[in-house]
Amino acid sequence: MRSGRSPQSGRSQQSDRSRQSDRSRQTGQSTVELALALPLLVVGVLVVVQVGRVAADLIAVHHVAREAARQAALAPDPPVVADRAAQASPDLDPDRLRVVLGPERARGRLLRVRVIYRSPTTVPLVGRLIGDVDVEATAVVRIE
Predict the structure, then answer these.
(1) pLDDT for 15
(2) What is the DSSP string of 18-55?
(3) In the chain, how many domains are there?
(4) 55 lies in a domain?
(5) Reported pTM
(6) Does 52 reside within a domain?
(7) Tens digits of per-residue pLDDT, 79-109?
(8) Which of left, alpha, beta for 139 (phi over 0: left; psi -120 to 50: alpha)?
(9) C-beta contacts of 55-63 below 8 A and 24+ residues apart
(10) Domain for residue 2, yes or no?
(11) Which residues on adjacent β-strands are paired with residue 142?
């Protein structure tokens, strides 16, 4: 005698189990893929944050170079120009800031002021991978 189940229902139960097994395998595979990709994604985001910080420092260094050049146009005295540069942007660490004046210091001549800033890479992980970055800007003014 045959049981009350049709051959179709047996196949249906087997295919249900097979689908559930496939789903659990896919879920496990997705978890492994996420575990492998997530650290790379986090490092990528941290790199973008660090690049943004260096870009902000670069903008500040351009501002400092313009301010130092203004001061140099009035009085091309290196210590005075360096002090003005340090005051121009409170966001920059004065110990990491270097101001270089060109050799020409005669009235009516062009003076080149170069500002170099060692931008710290303080974002976790990225700082150790990249290290500090030097950003610089140059401004040219006529000495009054």
Answers:
(1) 61
(2) HHHHHHHHHHHHHHHHHHHHHHHHHHHHHHHHHHHHHH
(3) 1
(4) yes
(5) 0.74
(6) yes
(7) 999 999 999 988 999 999 999 999 888 888 9
(8) beta
(9) 56/91, 57/91, 57/92, 57/117, 57/119, 57/135, 58/119, 58/135, 58/137, 60/89, 60/91, 60/92, 60/117, 61/89, 61/92, 61/115, 61/116, 61/117, 61/135, 61/136, 61/137, 62/137, 63/88, 63/89
(10) no
(11) 110
Average of per-residue pLDDT values in the chain: 86
CA 123 to chain CA mean position, Å: 8
Q: What pLDDT does 81 receive?
A: 92
> Of 134, 136, 132, 135, which Cα lies nearest the Cα of 121?
132
128, amino acid identity? R
Statement: residue 1 has pLDDT above 90 = no
